[in-house]
Amino acid sequence: VFSGREIRLVARPRGNPVTEDFALAVVQYDEPAPGQVLVRNLWMSLDPGVRARMNHGPSYAPSFNVGSSLDGSAVGEVIASACEGFLPGDLVVHRAGWRELALLQPGVASSLPPRHVRPDGVPLQAHLGALGHTGFAAYVGLFETAALRPGDVVFVSAAAGAVGSVAGQLSGLRGHKVVGSAGSEAKVRHIVDNLGFDAAFNYRDGPVAEELHRVCPGGIDVYFDNVGGEHLESAIGAMRDHGRVALCGSVSTYNGDTSKGLRNEFQVVSKRLTLRGFLIADHLHMWDRFLEEVTPLVMSGQLVQRESVVDGLENAPAAFISMLAGGTLGKSLVRLVP
Amino acid sequence: VFSGREIRLVARPRGNPVTEDFALAVVQYDEPAPGQVLVRNLWMSLDPGVRARMNHGPSYAPSFNVGSSLDGSAVGEVIASACEGFLPGDLVVHRAGWRELALLQPGVASSLPPRHVRPDGVPLQAHLGALGHTGFAAYVGLFETAALRPGDVVFVSAAAGAVGSVAGQLSGLRGHKVVGSAGSEAKVRHIVDNLGFDAAFNYRDGPVAEELHRVCPGGIDVYFDNVGGEHLESAIGAMRDHGRVALCGSVSTYNGDTSKGLRNEFQVVSKRLTLRGFLIADHLHMWDRFLEEVTPLVMSGQLVQRESVVDGLENAPAAFISMLAGGTLGKSLVRLVP
Hints:
The structure is a homodimer. Chain A is α/β, with parallel strands linked by helices. Chain A is about 25% helix and about 25% strand. Chain A has helices spanning about 50-55, 135-145, 160-175, 185-195, 210-215, 230-240, 250-255, 265-270, 285-300, 315-325; strands spanning about 1-10, 20-30, 35-45, 75-80, 90-95, 100-105, 115, 155, 180, 200, 220-225, 240-245, 275, 305-310, 330-335. In chain A, strands 3, 4, 5, 6, 7, 14 and 15 form a seven-stranded mixed sheet that branches. In chain A, strands 10-9-8-11-12-13 form a six-stranded parallel sheet, sandwiched between helices. Chain A has a two-stranded antiparallel sheet with strand order 1-2. In chain A, helix 4 (about 185-195) links the parallel strand 9 (about 180) and strand 10 (about 200). In chain A, helix 2 crosses helix 3, helix 2 (about 135-145) crosses helix 9 and helix 5 (about 210-215) packs across helix 6 (about 230-240). The model of chain A has no long low-confidence stretch (mean pLDDT about 95). Chains A and B meet through helix 6, helix 8 and strand 13 of A and helix 6, helix 8 and strand 13 of B.
């Protein structure tokens, strides 16, 4: 019998989540039944989208039920297996995060099935960041959803964040002019100094439309949207003809603040824009190509991913709240085993 | 020397246009210079998009200058020509409407160049409606922009209007379930009884989201948007996964009322929707295919287009204002020669 802790949602947040919305519980696990794999999670990912799924109603994945455990990307080591192809000691990325032990059923159809991680010389947690679902979201959004073309000028919001930092760097490494937004002066400096963006602005400094025009007066062709709301409206306003928006998330709306609705839809007509939402699970056929292209960039250090790490599952809620409030840089992670 | 009247914009409307925003002026024309063609307009089209171009700022075509003539689709007869391929008596569709005589320069590059009309047994004004830019907008929006697929359920706003009525009928004739919205009970009955829509609602009866759910509880796959605003937000809310919106116009915003902004952009992500604006000038390679497919439908009467006709250029502004207010059914036209 194995025992591990997990985080449960005990109340739906109203606005910003508070630690009282979460609770820690202990779960007992038997030996895996046929087809099951028991994994000890080593790292888990903190993703803004989890906040959306804490609301009632449709989201990009099923909403969490009050009283149930949360989930998200994690990487761990198989400690017991009754499933062919999974052996103790294997390293596996999967979606059963927010817990110390995860009971997987790899044979059951899933939109994001568990995947083996091959030892490849990068830190294990990179498989949750630049080489994981995070980096893959940047890759899919840019190259498939926005169909990045030579000469496109790219704008990325939440550009110091996990997905945005990869999207911006992948654009820049391909020779695109790329500008970004973030929520502090330190992040703005990081984006330009460490991530190679051509320019960046602090969206708290003034109307996004004005700031975007200031740093990129010639307009943009592609917007990688992690934010929604005022950012999305401003990007539409700055778009050149035939521009494209890849909608990856809209964190500005997750807390229920939809006061800043999009009002310039006519420009979508007049400039023949395309706005397209995507989920990575629809694009797994691109996974091998993604790894092939991005792994060398991570290994060589050309693609940088900062990490904000806390230790211990019990600290995940506070770290998650801090990330949503803009208090972290790069990929937010919880290390579950010291 | 030839003489003809034209309509000019004398003041930018604030909100709903009034007749005082327009003025009638007389223009003298010399014999056509080399490359020019003088056309006596017989019919002109009244299009909602002209309202957008009366505002200052970016639109789907250049804004009109105060003091300058308006323009739009028209069909007329060549009365003098110094341009190869154009002979007196030829019937020509072109973009120099809102005037009685039009001086064309067919050799000058244009996004929508003048086109000969072949006598084909349909009323001449049909080349401004179902067989003109109007019908072509419906065709492009459905089959190219929204990429209509077998089994798609289609929603069309302004469904009793010129473009919407064609979009809905083309969907229905291909076997799609199609629902529409309009602004009066009479229009709703017309859509269902005469145009073959499966269902329709009066958007003045209640929140669009509720009305749309009432007539189409299973959701929609394609939305042909002529309206923007609340309609667009409601359509996004009703979309099934991988739904598509063709944005053709957003008449609800042209008068400056953008109070009802779009606030559910996260559903564009979670349902992987595509919103795409289009202008017909980008798709002229589809013109022959469009005529080939739609001409028989018009000639056989399978595709119906009601017309709201006024006589005389001097009555164009009032008719235009009435159309914007929802006072017309089908294609709004001005007959310039009795």
